[in-house]
Structures are given as C-alpha cells and as structure tokens.
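Quick log. Single chain, no ligands specified.
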Amino acid sequence: MKAQIKDLKTLNIPKITDPRGNLAVIEKEVIPFKMERVYYLFDVPSGSNRGGHAHKELSQFLIALSGSFDVIVKDGKNESRITLNNPSKGLLITPGIWRELENFSSGAVCLVVASDVYKADDYIEDFQEYLDYNF
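-> predicted structure:
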C-alpha cells in the first residue's frame, strides 16, 4: 500500500513539568523506529521554504523546538497543512509522503529525528517523479 496522509501521526513527547522549566524526553518508546540521525533547521530566512521532497525508505519525526512552522504534506491525491508550534508534540512522517516546510517564525528551530543516515538515492526531489514513483 502506498503512503497516505491519513496515516500520519502527531505524537506526544513525554514532558516533565517543573517550576524550574519543562523537560521533554525522546526515548525509544516515543517513536516507532530506531534513531539513526538527528539534525535541525534554524535561522531560516523569512519567506524561505525547506523540504520539497519525499523519501523512499526514511521515516522522520519533526518537532518545533522553538517558534513555529508549517509542514505541507502530500500523498499524490490529498494535501494537508500541519502547524508545529509545541516542543512536546512531533509529526511522524512515513516513507512515501511529500513534505514541504514553510512559514517559519522568527527564531524557529525544527528538530528532525530520522530512521537512517543520509542517503542521496533515498530522496525524490521532483514532484512529477514522486507521482510516478508513488502511483
């Protein structure tokens, strides 16, 4: 079965509340894959877009550590816009979903936890190629 937007999930990240500040913890029970790579986007200029691709095998978990941004996801038939703005919630994106990130607020930081290391051949960066691949 091909990936569908309806299968995407927003997951809660366990949070420990303390008067000195909150602590959020991502351990192996939080996301349904083994973490192999972590990276983050920051200082994204106003009006800039990131993403604009899909992955053949890679799963990702996106979190707005600071500020907010929109994730536009497409499955070839449906499209949805999800705003991430809470560091105790993350968006799980499965393989085969096209994603674009935009509308970054000032100071926004997007943390990405990935199921594998970077592999150039896992990326589909042309939307028509994505449609041909996914259908």
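The chain has one domain: 5-134.
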